[in-house]
Amino acid sequence: MKKLLLLINPHAGKGGFRNGLGEALLHFHRAGFVTTVRFTDKHGDAPSIAAAEAGNYDRIVCVGGDGTLGETVSGLMKISPRPELGYIPMGTTNDCATTLGLSHDPATAAHTAAVGRTLELDVGRFNDTEYFTYVAAFGAFTEVSYQTPQDQKQALGKLAYFLDGVSRLPNLTHRWARVEYDGGVLEDDFIFGAVTNARSVAGVIKLKEDTGVSLSDGLFEVILIRTPESVLQLGAIVTDILANKFDSEYVMLLRSKTVRFTFRDEVAWTLDGEDGGSHREVVCENIRHAVRIIVNGQ
């Protein structure tokens, strides 16, 4: 019999795991897995459990939001070989689930985690010691994901991010940065920067498939937004983003395996929507085919 570790964040999605846990266990049983269930109690538990225990299993399935998935991957990156990874999304925005084409219905996602096919997923390494699954970002709106109270996230969903973000617009901080990427260097003032391996970020930034986004090509998509000089220009930036236009004067999209940011002052970052600390220099490196994640299809 194959062994599966089910890692649950009980605080994600209003504790919605309770409604689908039995059905999830049944899917795993029918797929030939003997399942062990572990719960996280606090931030930092998922990477510790994954690093210490996942190597004893054929598959680990995490239940929670994008942060839980990112923490689980961070733990897996510390062991080798790594078991297959499944994901049952229970968070607020679930950008990773959207990118991977996973259902937001827990029972359907559990079925996929039990019998789906594997995708070799790239993972980002952040300043040598930390990892991210889909985004490392700084600037406008990046504080929202981890500063918005959990009860507001659960009650309002994506609206909580939007409302909190709009309230911060009058106080947008711009940062001078030197950005070194494969084939070039940029120096400018930016209000936002993101290193992504995703098609959806914060439920707002959408990268369509025709933009060439691949989750397994060893390259990041780097989104940079230059500082606008007026409210009208800020409005144009918002319009460009909503229209998926990333080649304008203020909004740009680059591709690179490695990207280095150098700032004049310490700048706060988020990793997969969680607090990533403040740094004057950041290096993001794409680790190709780092984990095998379960997606739709057999």
Can you tell me the number of structural domains? 2
Write down the oligomeric state.
single chain
**First-residue to last-residue Cα separation:** 19 Å
Shape: elongated
CATH architecture of the largest domain: Sandwich
Q: What is the H/E order? A: EHEHEHEHHEEEHHHEEEEEHEEE
Number of helices: 9
Percent of sequence in beta strands: 35-45%
The strand count comes to 15
Structural class: alpha+beta
Largest sheet: 9 strands, antiparallel
Determine the mean pLDDT. 86
CATH topology of the largest domain: Tumour Suppressor Smad4
Helical fraction equals 25-40%
- Taking all Cα atoms into account, the compactness measure Rg is 19 Å
Q: For this structure, what is the CATH class of the largest domain?
A: Mainly Beta
Unreliable stretches (pLDDT < 50, length at least 5) are 144-148, 152-167
Textual characterization of the structure:
By secondary structure, the chain is of the alpha+beta class. It folds into two domains: 2-115, Probable inorganic polyphosphate/atp-NAD kinase, domain 1 (Rossmann fold, 3-Layer(aba) Sandwich), CATH 3.40.50; 132-287, Tumour Suppressor Smad4. The protein is 28% helix and 39% strand. It contains nine helices and 15 strands. Strands 5, 6, 7, 8, 9, 12, 13, 14 and 15 form a nine-stranded antiparallel sheet that branches. Strands 2-1-3-4 form a four-stranded parallel sheet, with helices on both faces. A two-stranded antiparallel sheet has the order 10-11. The protein is elongated, with a radius of gyration of 19 Å. The two termini are 19 Å apart. The relative contact order is 0.17. Mean pLDDT is 86; it is low at 144-148 and 152-167.
